[in-house]
Specification:
The chain is α+β, with helices and mostly antiparallel strands and 359 residues long. Among the domains are: 166 residues, Uridine Diphospho-n-acetylenolpyruvylglucosamine Reductase, domain 3, CATH 3.30.465.10; 79 residues, Lrp/AsnC effector binding domain/regulation of amino acid metabolism (RAM) domain (Alpha-Beta Plaits, 2-Layer Sandwich). A 5-stranded antiparallel sheet has the order 3-4-8-6-7. Strands 11-12-10-13 form a 4-stranded antiparallel sheet. Helix 8 packs antiparallel against helix 11.
Length: 359
């Protein structure tokens, strides 16, 4: 099914009595939702773009590539650095704005600009009963009422099918510089990244690849960036010499080191101060730290139950790529599970939207 209008989508959901798999461009979906596929690619098109107001409103099925090209022509961008998951998951197709929001997909710049949900200022969606819901607005000052925009971001299509999304935007910076510290252990790298991110020098990326280096990014006006490069180099002198290197951030954003490598891929959200210890216990074949250690990507042997190996951690582990029967998402605590059940009963009373995807 491929509705071309919001009204068509509402009719489909009102009439539906069996599970539906909600799909945008099919580039980043995870888990094992079962049912008839409902594609949102027909709900496309830029509705409003106001460069002077730094706002964009577009259909949920709009191609990310189309939007990024439109914004770039005006020297603007989505703040949260949209990751491309096609290489990691072995997919084709074109990513859509709705899919990005549904996954709350956020790249390395999250440490400075926030996640996708932090740039989202409004949504329209159709819930599982076929009711059209609008929340938020088309201007950044509209923050009244329950913020369903934030709720929809990261819900993976289990609460409603997005039809329209509104974002605040940012200018593309005049200059970007990547710095590298070599030879740090994982624990030292996390400490160095924390020192950089805790400084007043506006670091917009902090990543570490064992055997490759610890990377930091500074962006902005050229004079400001040059000043901050010197300040960060002095601030981190106790960790070693800092050198300027070529841009590594697309590879960090898209987890390129794991592409076309056999094994399971796990995404861990952690308290950064615990990240090195968790990784040491994981026994992974490859590791990539992002967000200063708040996000850790692990490549493990196929079928390894990483959650069982690690036990209780200050965070959670999501299985992004695997052929095993292990659950994609970590079990929820009783309190969170009760809240989730209540939300789904409200927004999807028939239980038809990606059932089984998130537990």
């Amino acid at each position: 099914m491929r509705p071309m209008t919001e009204a068509d989508l509402a009719d489909i959901l009102r009439a539906a009595d069996a599970p539906l798999v909600i799909r945008g461009g099919g580039t980043r979906g995870i888990g094992r939702a079962m049912g008839e596929v409902l594609e949102t690619g027909g709900l496309a098109g830029v509705r409003i773009y106001e460069p002077g107001a730094l706002t964009l409103v577009a259909g949920a099925g709009t191609s990310v590539a189309e939007v990024e090209a439109l914004l770039a022509a005006e020297g603007q961008r989505l703040p949260f650095e949209v990751p491309d998951r096609r290489g990691l998951l072995g997919r084709g197709g074109d990513s859509t704005l709705g899919g990005v929001v549904a996954a709350n997909a956020s790249g390395p710049r999250r440490v400075q600009a926030g996640a996708c949900r932090d740039s989202l200022i409004g949504v329209r969606f159709v819930d599982g009963a076929g009711v059209v819901v609008k929340n938020g607005g088309r201007v950044m000052k509209n923050v009244t009422g329950l913020d369903l925009s934030k709720l929809m971001a990261g819900s993976h299509g289990t609460l409603g099918v997005l039809t329209e999304v509104s974002f605040k935007l940012l200018p593309i910076p005049e200059q970007a510089v990547t710095l590298r510290l070599a030879g740090l252990s994982d624990a030292q790298a996390v400490e160095a990244m924390a020192a950089a991110l805790g400084s007043p020098f506006e670091v917009t990326g902090a990543a570490h690849g064992p055997g490759q280096g610890t990377f930091l990014r500074l962006e902005g006006f050229e004079k400001s960036v040059r000043y901050r490069v010197g300040q960060v180099s002095r601030h981190l002198a106790r960790f070693g010499a800092v050198e300027e290197v070529a841009d590594v951030w697309p590879d960090v954003r898209d987890v390129t080191p794991f592409h076309e490598r056999a094994g399971d891929v796990w995404r861990l959200s952690l308290r950064p101060s615990t990240a090195a210890d968790v990784v040491a216990r994981a026994g992974a074949e490859a590791v990539l730290y992002d967000w200063g250690g708040g996000l850790v990507w692990l490549l493990t042997a196929p079928g390894l139950d990483l959650r069982a190996r690690l036990g209780a951690i200050d965070g959670h582990a999501t299985l992004i790529r695997s052929d095993s029967a292990l659950p994609t998402f970590a079990p929820e605590s009783p309190g969170v599970a009760a809240l989730t059940k209540g939300l789904r009963a409200k927004f999807d009373p028939k239980g038809i939207l990606n059932p089984g995807l998130m537990g």
